[in-house]
Design goal:
With 209 residues, the protein is an all-alpha fold. The C terminus is likely disordered.
Length: 209
């Protein structure tokens, strides 16, 4: 039964990741159905577009970013009794991936959801901070240059995993990092179609989260 505790942590992280904070925050600020407004996305960008960046959009980004950290941080920083839970980078990245997948495919939204960028950057910020810093910088510079959030998000994530591959030794856990980036790219399919076909003018082309 050694697998029971890690499996339970993965399930817990998925369920925490699946909480649609964007919908909740928007509702607090008087928007009953965020999915019918703006781009229809539940992420921070659409909340900021519909309700305003401060504090609603910022709060949504923060809540989505820490989804994977509720379970991850105690293990990463040794806040649990030694030996109580198996320690491995594979488990840590798996917990982060579970939260991100929960955000993107929430069972409360019929397995739909956000695009996972904020949650992914939250996980990277803890497990690979230098990669997260470079990725965040690339996101910011790309967004300033193009004003297209999807382009910044995708290039930022690709830069983060490239830096991780260059400066960290390869390990199986890196495949889980790659899986997070793949899911984020998959969730941006409509954005990519819009960027290629219309130069970024698709309705959802500016929504990164």
């Amino acid at each position: 039964m050694e697998w029971a505790v890690p499996l339970g942590l993965l399930v817990l992280s998925f369920l925490l990741g699946s909480i649609p904070f964007g919908l909740m925050v928007a509702k607090i600020y008087g928007v009953d159905n965020l999915r019918a407004k703006g781009s229809g996305n539940i992420g921070a960008t659409n909340v900021a577009r519909v309700v305003g960046f401060w504090p609603a959009g910022f709060l949504t980004f923060l809540l989505d970013a820490i989804k994977g950290l509720v379970v991850l941080a105690p293990l990463k920083f040794g806040w649990v009794p030694e030996g109580a839970i198996p320690q491995s980078n594979t488990l840590l990245w798996g917990i982060g991936l579970a939260a991100m997948v929960g955000h993107c495919f929430s069972p409360w939204l019929r397995f739909n959801g956000g695009k996972g960028v904020a949650t992914t950057f939250g996980v990277i910020g803890v497990l690979a901070p230098w990669s997260g810093l470079v990725g965040g910088a690339v996101f910011g510079l790309t967004y300033l240059a193009t004003r297209v959030g999807a382009a910044g998000s995708l290039l930022g994530l690709l830069a983060a995993i490239a830096v991780h591959r260059i400066f960290y030794p390869f390990e199986p856990a890196m495949l889980l990092f790659g899986a997070m980036v793949f899911v984020a790219i998959y969730r941006h399919e409509s954005n990519l179609d819009g960027l290629l076909a219309k130069g970024g003018d698709a309705p959802d082309a500016k929504s990164p989260a």
